[in-house]
Structures are given as structure tokens and as C-alpha cells.
Please model this.
Amino acid sequence: MDHMLRLLLALSMLVLTWVAVGMVLPAAAAAKSPSGDQKRWQNEEGEVLSNDRLTQVLGTDSLALQFVGFANRHGKVYRSEKEVQHRFLTFKDNWEYIRESNTKNLSYTLGVNKFADLSWEEFKQEYLMKSTESSCVDNKGTNPIRKVEYLPKQQDWRKYGVVSPVKNQKQCGSCWAFSTTGALESAHALATGQLVLLSEQQLVDCGGSFDKRNLQGCNGGWPSSALEYVKYNDGLDTESSYPYEAKDGFCNYNVEANGAKVYNVINITQGAEEELQQVVGLLQPVSVCFEVTKPFRFYNGGVFSSSDCQVAPQDLNHAVLAVGYNQDENVTPYWIVKNSWGPSWGVNGYFNAELGKNMCGIASCATYPTSTETTGAASF
Model:
């Protein structure tokens, strides 16, 4: 009986160890894995690193095991033991940063996500727009806003089926293209009743020929200029006909695959958050830009707020889509914002940002399209 208990205990410990390391498979078993695990831990010769070798490289403490599980969950590919060590040390630094932030009782929480093996400098280089001296919108704006008698306390355009699913820009500073398509997809859906997914890749490939200064592919751009391009081009292809590749390419616009058009481009007055709220509350989702600061990449929930970010257009480095807000008296007022870092980031790909302070410049570069002559700002 004692022998049987010892055997069961030994088997249990083996299973727990296997689960704790994220089920990193040895080379022979990994070859059968349909999820591609066999590609995640390779040396420079393409050979899969065994569990024993990973243990020798990283050690067996709890954080090392967490890192292995993290790499498996997010399909990370490390080409050498040196890279494994480097990414683990970066992961460790970020883990400590997240843990310390969450002890401060802030209005938001951070969490380990797919960016946890990147340094802040690497993240900025791969996912954010580069700085630019050009202006995103006119200071005075073009929105024919006037005082409205009623503004709902809450709005969420997702409830009406006019917001497209969260997409993933990957390692390309093309957030501006996703913000643009998101705004136009919603405007088109509100005008026609049809939610059509539109091509970010066309904007990346073709926009530069229209406005080289403000539309620079994976290096960044402004949604206001992108919408002007679509208006000038008389349309934007569907996503299925011109799929996203996360890299700069040659323009392959096909007029026969046109999915939506822009009748007019309307800019919110720079910094006028009340004006932005009126449009989001009464008309449609709006493309907005803001400055991403160090903690934001690990946003995990709550209402994001920061005293470190800037609001001037030249400081903005990311473009997203404001799809609603909540100004109920029982909560801190916040914007509901759709990001383009995939549905696993944040809260199903979305985040909430404090409303009322032009947080990180969210109202400094806001713009939206109309799809027909009778939609959009004409409703005011």
C-alpha cells in the first residue's frame, strides 16, 4: 500500500512539473504538435531545445517556469539560447515593473501579455508610430458642432453591430490604418446597414503616393490624411480582396473590389473633448490618437489615466477608435476605445481611458468620415 501511494505521488509530481513549465515538448513529441510548438524553441541550426536544456539555460525557479509558459501561450520563437536568456531577463524586468505598478492602487491594472519579452525601446520601435513634425488636424477643426440639448450618459456603438472585430497590426506601425478603417467601417455600416471589413494594407501601400509626408506605411501616419486619400481615391478595397501583410508593399488597388467610399472628412477641433463626446454620443465612432506611455502596453483593465503623457499632436504615437463612453455618476467617466493589438490584449482588445482631461491627447487628433451626403455631421 505504501509503495502504491509513493508511486501515485511521484506520478502526480511529474504531471505538475510538466504543466508548470507550460508543457514544452521534447523534439520527438513536438513534431506531432498541430499548434507549431516545435518551432518555438530552436537553436541557430533549427534544432529544438529540449526541456533539460531549457532548464540548464534558465534555471528552475518559479519565474523561469512562468516565462516558459508565457512563451508557449504566445507562440514565441527564439532562435538561440542566447536569445532565450536575453528575453527571459527582459521578461523578468517587465514582470517586476507590472508587480510594482499593481501595488500602487491605481485606477487601472497591468498584466503580463504578449509584449512582456520586449523592452520599452523595442516596443516603441516595433508597434508605435514614429515622431513627426506634421500636424494631424486643423487647430480649429471642421466639425459643424453646436450646443446639443441632450447627450446620453452612456454610449457603446458595439451594441448596434456597427463596430468591426478587433484586428492585429502586428509588428508594423500601421495603427493609423486600422484606426482609419475602423472609423470608415462604422460610418459605412451606419449609412448602409452593412458592416464591411476594409483593407488596411491598401492604406499602407498606396497612401504614400497621395501624401508622402503624412502617410508613411509601417512608420506611421495620420487617419485624417488617410481618410482624405480614400476620398480622393474614390474608395477603399475590402480586407478580403487586399489582405493585411504587416509590411510595406507595392500598391495593388483594385477598383472592382471597392468596399466603401468617403464623402467627407470631418476633424474635431484640436483638444475639444466635449465636441468629441458629442460626436461619439450622437453620431458614430471616431478615430482618435494619443500618446502611449510605458505602462499602457501592459494595460489589463480599469480606467487608464496618466500624468506623464503629452497632448500636443507632435507627441502622439498611436491611433485607435473611440467607440463609446460611460459618464454614469457612479463611476469615473471613461472612454471605450478599440485598439489594434489583437483581442488577447487589454480587455478583449479594448481599453478604457479617463474622460474629461483630454487624457494623453485623445481629443487632440480626432477625425471621422461620412459615407454619404446625408450622414455624419449633417445630422446636427
User: Anything to note?
Assistant: DSSP finds ten helices and eleven strands in the chain.
